[in-house]
Design a protein that fits this description.
single chain; 446 residues; mainly beta; Porin; 16-stranded antiparallel β-barrel; two-stranded antiparallel ribbon; 5 helices; disordered N terminus
């Protein structure tokens, strides 16, 4: 579960410059920096769906996104279900992961944003939100189609002050909910286990050209609704001393999860995420020969929950992801190698590997649900990028866990592989300790 909000810097820069054009000297955060190379950042440098008034001031910026993939799982599970992933929901068949359209406006300092979505990714992210079972007049039926929606206002304070309310992509984790923005297709487990969206309000403040800090008040940890009487709070900090370095430190604290059957939650959750992204080489002149730029990213995460008999030492998650990316042919080709590791005692935030009641008997049920789970992942990703708007991606991934956790040939749905067939009470899901996959994807974005 993950994802993440990173600034579409080109749009933001143009917006803030327009909003402040009446001042003597426009103060634009990260002005002049090329940030399109950063892991988790939209790599577009031009936006053809921008519409301006007769004075040249941008009124609306449109967004169109289509992400399709073929995920070949070497285990060939009979139900074609890809488990333990919020990036790929299906295997061994063609899938539309995300189709999205949207508009964004900062006309005369008014912030308005509506990005709609559909696709298989909503089945493993938005539709899994259990908070909508609290009370009535709520469901994921309509909200799941909203990728982001917000209303707010930009104040010309220092380098900018934004106040917004709505549904946002998560600020926790380096890699984005939108897979086109990441260096790899399958997210790191550090990011896949953490939120992709929040509902609430945020304040973004740019005290200087190189620094942004945010304060969040939100309903909960990847929830549309709240699990308790109190909202969650968050803080996000970005420091970019120059266009080759990004330093991030983010925090979350909230009262989440349901406690028993008679009371609201008293389980407190704290998480901290930090990352370093550094471009250590950039060729000064454009050329189709050799390496054009190279960068690495390091993402670390630690979090725990405690309360109602839950102990932090038994319910925490910690992990690290390290990636290195090299661009060739004037940034038209790129190769990324990544390794990540997660330990998740108690199954805290872990994906459920199979349907309820089908956990195999060859190991303890508590272990099957993720207790003392340790997992590693290695990926190699090759991108072909003819321009800013299309990416052809080829990726090989290997994952290993200390317990049977990934889908085997027998699948994880039923003995027939269909969810509408009665499950034989003697049937057990086929889980393995290793997984190997090849993902081929095409991403289009305007």
């Amino acid at each position: 579960m993950k994802k993440h909000i990173l600034l579409a810097v080109t749009i933001c820069t143009a917006t803030l410059a327009t909003a402040q054009k009446d001042t003597t000297t426009a103060k634009v955060p990260f002005d002049g920096m090329d940030l399109s190379w950063i892991n988790g950042q939209n790599r577009q440098k031009n936006f053809p769906l921008q519409f301006a008034d007769k004075n040249g001031e941008t009124i609306l910026t449109g967004t169109v996104l289509l992400d399709g993939y073929f995920n070949y799982n070497f285990a060939r599970p009979k139900d074609n279900t890809q488990t333990i992933s919020a990036a790929t929901a299906r295997s061994n068949e063609f899938s539309i992961n995300q189709a999205s359209i949207g508009i964004e406006s900062n006309y005369k300092n008014i912030i308005g944003r509506l990005w709609l979505q559909t696709g298989s990714q909503t089945a493993v992210v938005q539709e899994a939100d259990g908070s909508v079972t609290r009370g009535r007049n709520t469901s994921t039926a309509n909200l799941r189609y909203i990728r982001e929606a917000a209303a707010g206002y930009h104040f010309n304070v220092d380098y900018g002050l934004n106040v917004e309310m709505g549904i946002f992509m998560s600020y926790i984790g380096l890699e984005s909910y939108v897979l086109q923005e990441n260096w790899c297709y399958q997210r790191s487990m550090v990011c896949d286990f953490t939120p992709f969206y929040f509902q609430g309000a945020r304040l973004q403040y740019y005290p200087s050209k190189k620094f942004k800090t945010e304060l969040w008040v939100l309903n909960g940890w990847q929830t549309y609704n709240s699990w308790s009487k109190n909202p969650g709070i968050g803080n996000s900090n970005y420091y970019r001393p120059n266009e080759n370095v990004q330093l991030v430190a983010n925090f979350y604290y909230g009262t989440d999860s349901k406690s028993g059957t008679t009371q609201l939650s008293n389980i407190h959750r704290f998480h901290h995420d930090n990352s370093v992204v550094y471009r250590y080489f950039k060729r000064k002149s454009a050329t189709k020969k050799g390496i054009s730029q190279a960068a690495f990213s390091i993402n670390n995460h630690y979090g725990f929950q405690t309360g109602d008999g839950v102990k932090a030492k038994d319910n925490y998650m910690t992990g690290t992801s390290i990636a290195n990316r090299i661009w060739f042919n004037n940034n038209k080709l790129a190769l990324t190698l990544r390794g990540d590791y997660v330990t998740n005692p108690g199954g805290y935030l872990a994906f459920t590997p199979a349907v309820t009641g089908s956990i195999p008997n060859d190991y303890d049920v508590a272990i099957a649900n993720g207790e003392n789970l340790k997992m590693t992942q290695l990926t190699a990703t090759f991108d072909i990028m003819p321009n800013d708007h299309v990416t052809f991606r080829f990726e090989y991934g290997h994952r290993n866990a200390n317990i049977p956790y990934f889908a085997g040939p027998g699948g994880t749905t039923s003995q027939t592989g269909f969810s509408n067939d009665p499950i034989d009470p003697t049937w057990k899901a086929d889980l393995r300790k290793d997984e190997n996959r090849i993902i081929v994807s095409v991403n289009f974005r305007l």
